[in-house]
Amino acid sequence: MAALDRSLISRLPLFQGLTPDEQSEILRDARSSRYAKETAIFAQEAEAHSFFVLIAGHIRVVRTTPDGQQVIARYISEGEIFGVAAALGRTTYPASAVAAVDCVVLAWPNALWPDLARRFPVFGAATYRTVGSRLQETQTRVVEMSTEQVEQRVAHALLRLANQTGRKTDSGIEIDFPISRQDIAEMTGTTLHTVSRLLSKWEEKGIIVSGRQKVTVKDAHRLVVLAENRDKG
Ligand SMILES: Nc1ncnc2c1ncn2[C@@H]1O[C@@H]2COP(=O)(O)O[C@H]2[C@H]1O
To answer: Is 203 exposed, middle or buried (0-12, 13-18, 19+ CB in 10 A)?
Structure first.
């Protein structure tokens, strides 16, 4: 692995509970790469050769439907392992991973996964925990998509992003990477027009502040009320 900040890597949740020597052994087989904003780390349907950990930046996981529509499956934050479903048995990537900002990524060949998980059970268990919590999040979103009105879905998406990547500022919780209204529409199965209408309405009510590719949640409590459809005004 190229010279990356080792102290930063050793603090990642994925490496907790491993000795410095064990961490070094796992990292020995990793390749570190930089990806400029909007470049792909892997492409949907490409042969799955590696699994990855995001060291710096944010990544969008995007699936393109046969008729060309794009859906944002989720965002990946610093420290997360990804592309791992492929290591666990798939032969192609189910979606594309695209750098939402400039990123630094570690990659391991998939062929090493069974051996790494066997030799370092703590690392294996941390990976399975991540996959498990993603499965839970996916199921939550399936229920949201099939039962909630669009206003609730957009409110839930903003709360999830604020929770996952939020940065506290004087004006509220700022989603810590560039996110457009189109991105929010692709996450919630609606149109740019509807997202723009909702964000403008919430901005007028003082619930959020939105700028170009930026959203800050000013009043998380009221957004929760909207997400749970308890708003009476
Ligand atoms: N059918 C699918 N449609 C959209 N995204 C998917 C699908 N299956 C898996 N993914 C996502 O694609 C991601 C690829 O990296 P991961 O394996 O970490 O996690 C995977 C899921 O988040």
So the answer is: middle
Confirm or reject CATH 1.10.10.10 for domain 148-227, answering yes or no. yes
Tell me the ipTM for this assembly.
0.92
Are 188 and 157 spatial neighbours (Cβ–Cβ below 8 Å)? yes
Nearest CA, atom 16, ligand 1: 83
CA gap 147, 48 in Å, rounded: 34
Mean pLDDT by 10 residues, the chain (233 residues): 68 87 92 96 95 94 94 92 81 94 95 92 91 91 92 96 90 91 95 96 96 92 93 65
Which ranges of the chain would DSSP assign to H, the alpha helix? 6-10, 20-28, 84-87, 113-119, 121-147, 150-165, 181-188, 192-204, 220-227
**206 C-alpha vs ligand 1 centroid, how far in Å?**
35
Pick the residue whose CA is nearest to atom 9 on ligand 1: 94
State the residue for tokens 């457009």: 180
The protein residue with its alpha carbon nearest to ligand 1, atom 18, reads: 82
Q: What is the CATH number of domain 6-145?
A: 2.60.120.10
pTM, rounded to two decimals: 0.88
